[in-house]
Amino acid sequence: MIIGTAKESYRADEALLTTQPQRVWMAIFLATLVALPFVLDDYWLYLACLVAINVTAATGLNILTGFTGLVSLGHAAFMAVGAYTVAWAETRLGTPFFINLIAGGLVAAAFGILVGLPSLRVKGLYLAIATIAASFILHFCFIHFDGITGGATGINVPPLSIFGIELATYFRLYWVIMPITAVMVLGAANLFRTRIGRAFIAIRDRDISAEVLGIPLLRYKLMSFSIASFYAGMAGGLWAYFFRVVTPESFPLMTSIFLLAAIIVGGMGAIIGGIAGAIFMTLAPELLRFGMEWISPLVPNAGALLSPVRTVVFGALIVGFLIFEPQGLAEIIQRIRRYFRLWPFRT
Amino acid sequence: MNGDLLFFIEISLAGLGSGALLALTALAFVLIYKATRVVNLAVSEVLMLGGYLFFAFAAGLGLSAWVALPLAILGGGILGGIVERGLIRPMLGENPISVFMVTVGLGSILVGMAELIWGAEPKSLPAFISTTPLFLGEAYVSRKIAVAFVVAGVTISVFLALFRFWRGGIALRATATDQAAAYSCGINVPGVFSVAWIVGCATAAGAGVLLGAIGGISTTMGVFGLSALVVVIVGGLDSILGALIGGLALGLIQSWASTYLGGEYTSVVTFGLLIVAMMIRPYGLFGTHEIERL
Amino acid sequence: MKTTRRMAMGLLAGAASLGLSMGAAQAQEDIVIGGSLPMTGVFAFAGISIEAGMSDYIKLVNDAGGIDGKMVRLAYEDTGYKVDQSVAVFNKLTSQEEIHLYYGDSTGFAKTIAPELVRKGSMIMGGASFASELNNPEAYPYAFIPGPDYTEMVNILLEYIAKEKPGASIALINSDTEFGRDPIAAAKARAAELGLDVVLEIITPPGSVDVSTEVLKLRRARPDYAISHGYILAPQPEFMSQAKALGLETKFMGTFWSMDSSLWKTVGETADGYMGVMPYRYYYDDADNAPMLDKIREMRPEYQSTGYMQGFLSAMLMVESAKRVLAEGKEMNGANLKAAMNTIKDFDTGGIMGVPISMPGNSIPVGRVYQFSAAEGKMLPVSDWINVE
Lengths: 347, 294, 389
What we know:
The complex is a heterotrimer of chains A (347), B (294) and C (389). With 294 residues, chain B is an all-alpha fold. Helix content of chain B is 73%, strand content 2%.
């Protein structure tokens, strides 16, 4: 539907935002993000921060699973590694926040490489199960290396502070969490304009062919694991500052499944998918809470239904999207875009 | 007999007993995988549902345990049939990870449903296995564990025999080997799929009743399925013999680990073993090695 | 990409308007007790009775004219026993209402929200967690535990054992969770002080069903007592039935959350003789001078679980603190409420706890050992009230 093209360089061709309306909408979107904390109350700000953390983690998993085709059910364990690193550095070394956070990401990335090592030998489901195994082994380490991790009770994290300013309220935390998330997402989007990102996609589509084309599989698979774990580690670090306590039970297997569900629902292999999925899956349980409040006059004991209904809806979303909309929310968004491109003329 | 040796024999017997339960659950994974190439993580939740169905029939309706047990197994089978027709059929031809995630979602739905119907608090099943201990020579064996061992052993032997001699079993093996060829031999492949799911889920439900009789039921008892998944990965996803040997071996190892290292080491030993086994034989000890072609 | 933005904005705008409209005016006259309660999920059986207990006490207070004419109200939402949900509920409730008293549902939540409580400085919080870590007024200035903490519970049991059978051998059975591991180290130290011999430590992985190997360990060690902690029910009945079958004389004991008699009633004959520590009276306890128990039995003709008593007493402590703060004409905030709570000395609970209670720090280190009688389907007291201050 696009007539001709005015692009004169490959750079322009690869740009993230190619049209004027896109830029305008992006500006509006960013302005909204800036305006949000001024209009939301603490409850919604809490959710906004949680959404941002989940977006970072889901984007990381999307790089690994959606773009490189390596399924991981151990993503939460990498978040835990990041969270523990941050908590440890903050309490033991007292290093500045940003260094802690980056260290959290890097340590998680190192673990990611370690866990990714089997990926050359096994793939698909077997790899998914190997990552589950790795996360259980890490969980064991969190409990038993109590010199570092504080054992079963974990570590309490002091409030985040930058240049002596304490950032303990959600309003202040938002100004740290949201920009970092934005940068992380931007980084992920840019990754797929580079050779590395394209190599990932080639591996996803057919790893043996990719190897024939001259992409060293081991190196790129490990790279994908390390980048994804870096994202998880950063998300985990933010999580540690956000919830202020890290215990071995903070990141259960369920979190890994949640993140995988988020990118399935959002759309694998699309940056927007990771974002939309994380937003949707984080907010859906809260919207159900309001739904339940709404029907509570009609249904006796509606409050007691909330948690099982959430569990059912969570499963139903995964199943429903996989069967009816395998490309996820990203595809729905595309469809709406296409519709409006011709609007008001119907196709 | 030397006390330490007797103790060792006893814990080994206990390990074999719980290993038999693992093997029985692993069998459910294998049956379904063999026919449809789907790793059905919802086996864990069908297991849980089996326990709850038994509870509903035996404690809720007050039926005798010997009526409730087949009903619970039947319930599991019916569920398997519905799931196969409703969720798995439409996914045929999709990549295995997607189907795997469908079963993960299904598991979540089943847990939620069980909570909606029966509530989330842990429950005890009406006792239907006697608790008088059994002694093999001097060695003590819990009767429930012994029953589990016998049931699992008999069931797995029956399945091994069926696959060897029964037409349907051979049809399933043919389907597992080559679906296209199976079609051209006149085998009703979709029918084989349905049967595999029904029988697999029924097995899981039966295992759930046994498990519930030992440890009580709760909506989180599906965690047990993860250990069984380790068994099938180590033993080979498409090998019944692998499920049996893998299950017994894992039971033994878990029992030894928990005795000589401590209970907290069981999961790390289990999963460490999994990773080692995967590195050595990624397709399992008894699984079929598939060669990938471009 | 434009519709993406549009959708996101729509969502955000909707969210914002919702948030705004809800933050708006609410009747501020009442004294509100906030609650993150596990009405569903694995801990639902407790959450539901806690809610009942709190509501009933609040009703009693309001029927008697409230506190200084102010009505008390419970504002709670379900958390499904998940920490992030509990925090979400906390944030939602505190942004909607003025809350000075709060009930939290788990150790994880209590620890997560503790720094926020310090920052806000406006409320005190009790809850379903008896974690030993919370029993530290310096680290958790605004937390309180409506009873003994887990370490103190185990100490009560050890004290009882030391009296019943000096030098007895003990096995510790704990689940491999934060909850289960809580009292282990302290219990071993205390047992050594009391001259008791810890002969065996068993850690069961979460979700483990078959305990045959553990029972074999028990048989080899032959302890006089086995103290289990970190479970609601399973796998304790299986331990007991196998131990009984093997002819072990071991007496099994547990802590508060596994002491509900209706749970053990479903277990049947096997449960007979199970002992444990209970900080409160049971619904059916025969006691003189227990007007509150009579009132409870009047309000609810059928058995109420241990969680009910816990919720009831929690509400009582909260209301009492608020009453004392208001009586002194002070501002309702965390520091004043906590100070008021610490002035509670030899306080009569109307029979909910068998002795007058004091709360010098964060906990009330009092409890009594009860034993389950399968014949009666009830927990019967086997010790006097033990104080382990």
